[in-house]
Specification:
The structure is a homodimer. By secondary structure, the first copy, chain A, is of the alpha/beta class. Chain A contains twelve helices and ten strands.
Chain lengths: ~280, ~280
């Protein structure tokens, strides 16, 4: 690969450029919507950096669409990374990329990933520590929380019903690929989480404005439960928790950003265990 | 105010609706751009929640534009809040609001604020603790950091040259009004911050991937210095710091989100002082 003549290569790419059939374009565009993602079990991963992370995580990718104008700019290492897709890679027109993209200014590469939907079992296929999010609707916050979870070695994120979809383009993008390294359970009622926690001796920490910072490291594996920025957690969840934890307000303001609160609380829990 | 007949009120508003002159509309739209914000010393504050915060902070507002369709939906308390603006309030058409708005789906209320640009003096008009941000360009991150600063009682944010503008609509919005409660210094070279810190016995903490978590509370007032998510801090800043601090990676991933790192580090610094 390393001694490719760029002129020859460009010629080669030009000859390979496919005009996407309308049905295929429609299928790819349909994945912008949750309904079709779950009908087909597929979702979009956009941008080279995210696709690299998916490859690194051995995440199943079905196909990759790339504009020759982007491919020409890639370095040798990046081209080698794409070579592993072999016949799964499609050179398409910039216009086609624009039509299937979830961004207003597409980078030029989009992959189709296979939705990996693990089934939550009460008698436990979770590894703790974990995070349980109750009716979270902001995709940017969910993505940022996943990125933080990965950084701190938290292995799973579980979402209640009525939460944002883990495979929505905005979540995928803001997770910066962390999605591919975590187990994401969806539509899990709090009661199921609680049964699982009870059966497996897992401590349930609930985040609340009234909570105090963690005083001592958790003595057992744990799950951190958080609600949305505007509504927090309902009473029945707060009362089920072993402990309510929070972040003291030394200044003023209504609330912290949800993903920042999550960052501080995960840090408290993880760091106290390690020191 | 409390016994207004809604029909009479609506009539009143209808008669008061102004068609904004083209020049005024152009002036308001020009404030989307940094250049014009600084030429005129004015910036836009959009949404009732933000305007409420500005009022709460006694922040100078020059005028308020509101669509009658929004005014009709306000409760008595919200109307009373707006009453304080008296002749500064203008009822305008929804179309005018759409044209001056910084959002694709405007809420219906926009205020013009007066840029409050304090001058940074080395012999100190800063109150510490503070945060110094080096070449930060993401408005969402800056806004979220300001919100966190306010929550923890950090009183000032100082920005290096080549940073995002504190008065850009996205920063204002994501700060959730914290902007009005903080001193924001802009275009301050790191050398000036350092001189000020030296003259005032202030500890300079620099955030870096190689840093370790804070081991003991700061013994003096401090300033936390952070760089952008992608570039971090340059060597000359890192070597000038009293101490390099960081957040241990117990899992994997390239980096944490900047505003989340800031949240964890500010928490470390503030909380260790208080406990």
């Amino acid at each position: 690969m390393s001694n490719r003549n760029p002129k020859v290569l460009n010629k080669l790419i030009e000859n390979q450029v496919e005009k996407l059939p309308k049905s295929q374009r429609q299928f790819l565009r349909s994945l912008h919507q949750k309904k079709y993602r779950y009908q087909t079990g597929r979702f979009l991963i956009e941008g080279l950096k995210l696709i690299k992370e998916a490859v690194l995580a051995n995440f199943p990718l079905e196909s990759v669409y790339i504009a020759p104008s982007l491919y020409e700019k890639l370095n040798e290492k990046e081209r080698q990374l794409l070579d592993i897709f072999q016949e799964k890679i499609h050179f398409v027109t910039t216009r086609d990329i624009q039509q299937i993209s979830t961004l207003s200014t597409p980078e030029g590469i989009i992959a189709v990933g296979v939705i990996d939907q693990p089934v939550f079992k009460t008698d436990n296929n979770l590894s703790f520590p974990g995070i349980y999010l109750w009716e979270i609707n902001d995709p940017g916050n969910l993505g940022a929380i996943m990125r933080t979870a990965r950084w701190f070695g938290v292995k799973n994120i579980t979402l209640s019903p009525n939460s944002v979809d883990i495979y929505s383009p905005k979540v995928v993008r803001s997770s910066m690929g962390s999605l591919f390294f975590l187990s994401g359970f969806q539509n899990v009622p709090f009661e199921e989480l609680c049964s699982s926690a009870k059966q497996n001796n897992v401590m349930v920490f609930a985040a609340d404005m009234s909570g105090t910072p963690l005083q001592s490291p958790p003595t057992d594996p744990w799950v951190l439960v958080m609600g949305s920025e505007s509504h927090g957690l309902p009473p029945h969840i707060l009362t089920s928790a072993v402990k309510t934890i929070g972040i003291p307000r030394y200044g003023s303001g209504e609330s912290l950003n949800l993903s920042i609160s999550a960052g501080i609380l995960i840090y408290q829990l993880i760091h106290s265990e390690r020191t």
